[in-house]
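Hey everyone, long-time lurker, first post.

I ran two proteins through the pipeline my lab uses and got sequence/structure pairs for each. Pasting them in order. The first:
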Amino acid sequence: MSMDAIYLDGISLLGPGLPDWEEAVAILCGDKPAELAPVTVTAPALLPATERRRAGTSIKLSMAVGLAAAEAAGIDPGGLANVFTSSGGDCENCHHLLDALASSERMISPTRFHNSVHNAAAGYWSIATHCEAASTSLSAYDASFGAGLIEAAGQVLTSGAPCLLIAFDTAYPEPLFALRPVPFPFGVGLVLSPTRGAHSMATLGLSLTRDPADTLSEPPLEQLRREIPTARALPLLQRLAGGGAGRVVLDYLDDTRLAIEVGG
């Protein structure tokens, strides 16, 4: 599989010690040490008050990176087709649901129930931004970032219109953490376009390969890359932060990786 090149018009990042793309650039380029720190996210003012109260970490995180990427691209988020990808969705909400089902009461909050569907983040996004464009929500376990990037790029090339990729993962509490040790929330937003525009910062050409995935020399960043599915994007983000052209290989499937040719 190989795809024609598409343009990257906007980018955002939020993770431990990576509060936004601007600060992350210095860390990814090695100008500032990487230090893991708690991730703080708040519900955006765009959400009505009722939805803000109901929003969990996955909603807050996905909306934060989506809005930041759209702002960086200088585009109205309400008009963007979007792809949401996450390995597990709202992990904390899943924990609370299972905890309730394991109790003697077995009573589930309606809010927890409606937040449990995998496209809940996309639903909150459409409420906040009034977006009526096509929306896709997917999951591919550890391959979720790669699958989301392929899906979003495919939509750009077939529709001839920009698409917003929102990739995110949240942390599992115990006892689920013992089986699925995702330690931190981590989110990435990318606005992809079929044509060069005023905000275009790079071209991306996708293909599949059996070459080994790129790793990161900074131990805290490599830890994130290995432990959080969305953080599989970090070698690509490091290349983009440095502003140079070149080839990046990301973890994808067990025997297949995702190669990305980054151009100017």
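...and the second, right after it:
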Amino acid sequence: MPADQWDDLDSPKTIDNLVAALKTGGHEAQFLEASIEPPHNLVQRLSDYRPDLCFNIAEGHFGDSRESQVPAVLEMLRIPYTGSRLLTLALALDKPMTKRVLWYHGLPTPEFQVFERPDEPLDEDLLNPDGSLRFPMFVKPSREGTSMGVSAESIVTTVDTLYVQVGKQLQRYNEPILCEHYIKGREITIGMLGNLAPTAARRVNERTAPHVLPETLTFFPALEVDLRAYSESEAGLYTNYMKVELADDFRYLCPAPLAAEKEQELRLLAAAVFRVIDCKDVSRVDFRLDEAEGDKPYILEVNPLPGLNPGYSDLCIQARAAGWSYEQLINAIVDQAARRHGLA
């Protein structure tokens, strides 16, 4: 297994704060490890505990659709849970599949190709007539989070270096490798809380973003990763090293210094992503603003299972910038799910 195999999993600090927040909200709460193997025996413990609702933060351990495994167990046991359903979680973890859905709906995402072998030919539309790359490309694993596999070496400008990086990552992660047009510019994330009412869903289920924000979604202030605050060794990227090793010294701007029109544009696009990926209760959409195209936004990915560490997770920082406490954020997610499931 790669050294960063477990970088996506939650820390005991996150779990302890989450349970405490739920109890502050008047709920009885207990942490259950997301494993069906002894000694955790998730299925048996769920059957014994008989929860009214599960607050799902399970990233899973192995498999292409690992984030949907515990929700699948919950659905088999007919136990409601917070957040998106298993199909959305499986889709969003697979970045190329997500990009295909966004592409179909006319939502801006960088051009890309997926490599399952190190010797696959490059698509012709990614090449100039002389066989060189049309633009810099970005190489990363298809089904990982926490920027696993993302480093300065991920940016490639020649066909030869692209194949070198594809080969390295195929060997390291043993999964398809995504190569997409590298967008140089600011990195912005938009966090959302809520659900789409039937009327709002019709407005955003289009091939382009809606023109009116759905009233049933709450948008937190945009967060910008302050890439200038980090070493040049990170090449202006939000790398795995920054997310893991420097997590307690995360440099960001929240609210991000954006013109009102630009933030509105990002929120409209995020609402469209929320709809076409079929997110529930809470989600986060990550963008790059292309400095070569006047800060045109490109959707990098959607995270329907965003991190909830109270100290450094993007969504928690955004909620705090909006004046929300951690306890308020966590219990608002519960309230959204409870209403959606028809719970008293």
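Reply from user beta_strand_b:
Welcome! Quick read of the second one: The domain at 112-181 is CATH 3.30.1490 (Dna Ligase; domain 1). The CA atoms of residues 15 and 31 lie 7 Å apart.
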